[in-house]
Amino acid sequence: MEKTTVLVCPMDWGLGHASRCVPVIRAFVDAGCHVVVAAGGGGRQLIEKEFGTGKGGEAAGSFQRPLFVDFPGFRVSWPGRFPLLKFILRLPSFLLHIRRERRALARLVREHGAGIVVSDNRYGLVHEGVVSVMITHQLRPSLPPVLRVMEGLVAMVVRRMVSRFDECWIPDCPGAPTAGALAGGWERLPSAVFVGRLSRFAITETNGRVNGQRESVPAGPSGEVGEGAVEKAGSNSGREQVVFGELGKYGGYRFLFVMSGPEPQRSLFEEKVREIMRGRGDRSLLVRGVPGGNIEGEGGGYLAASSGELEVVPFLDGRGLMKAMEMSELVVCRSGYSSVTDLLVAAKRAVLVPTPGQTEQEYLGRWLDGKGGFRVIKQRELTMERLMEVLEAGEAGHSRDSFGKMQAGVKDQCNDGTLLLTQVAAVIERCCSDGSRH
What we know:
The chain has helices at 16-30, 41-51, 83-89, 91-112, 151-162, 265-277, 318-326, 337-346, 359-368, 384-393, 418-434; strands spanning 5-10, 34-39, 59-60, 63-64, 67-70, 116-120, 131-135, 167-170, 192-194, 203-204, 209-210, 229-232, 240-243, 253-258, 284-287, 310-313, 328-333, 350-352, 374-376. By secondary structure, the chain is an alpha/beta fold. The chain has 2 domains: 5-196 and 417-434, Rossmann fold (3-Layer(aba) Sandwich); 229-407, Rossmann fold. Helix 1 crosses helix 2. The protein is globular, with a radius of gyration of 21 Å.
């Protein structure tokens, strides 16, 4: 029987949407499907690094790599002042882009004979004759206080757009929602179904793999599993490069700083971290969140610091980031939904720094602060003193409230991929029974 072809199309606002598509891709590949990843920007680069280089469809050990095609989404920046207002002013362009995406999708479906299209927050990617799936945790987007009276209306519009899809996959846990009110109204969507937490770190108990990733996944430059070369900021005599296999060879890290999100806020966050780490003797690691970066860096390059203070890496794949978390006392990162999901699955305490003006992250910060091992600090208030207070007081990771159970273990059906695998099997069966292209 001919393989079912699946188009997976993540939004490329930052890296989170692409990151949570990694387990979805693996699930379809494991089910025997031919997967085509249609994406652009850093999101495409992230997924390419997770699956290794090589021609799409080639075997990597005992599984097939997906095919990659360029399909960039709507480009957004997140300026420092009034970012949501500026985005609202661009809504006409956004809506026009949705119409263009729909036409481009029709071409991709024809070219690749797709029977299933999985869109992560790309509302235009619906096509007749195929099974269309939307992945989203935002059915009731959070608005700033001045516009909060309109949240109900906006939620109704979002549900109407999502209802055009055959299925709506909510990457969350029924009964213990990470998204809080953001997923509100899901019960009004007959097509809505919870598929569990989608993380590159998910461990499947039945097959002993990390997120479905077999031991034959291409290794990093050192032969160790992981992607990225690390610059260990050295003395004035020059920079020393160490490959990933030597990451943390001098011991663990005090802090792990993980940058992410759209520009210019990603760069502003990085500058803030560099500023507070300047002159510190705490061995720490900075992951810049730039999949296409290099050792010379982008946008100003790296700091020159004495050996053992700050190591910098442009990007780490799933296994590399998991290893870095295990070697660190405290993670400092954005409060993006995918970042929070990774932390919960990894059972790692963290300080969350919401992107200024990004209402979703600001809401998640308020919702998660003090729960499940998280403490929240605003970007403008981020100082070494605040971080040391959290670290020394042991506030993070010691929450005893009911939300703390979300931090316990990764072998339940919400974290281990069981819900996702069940739904993947169901949508493949639906595709075949509906007579969709495959």
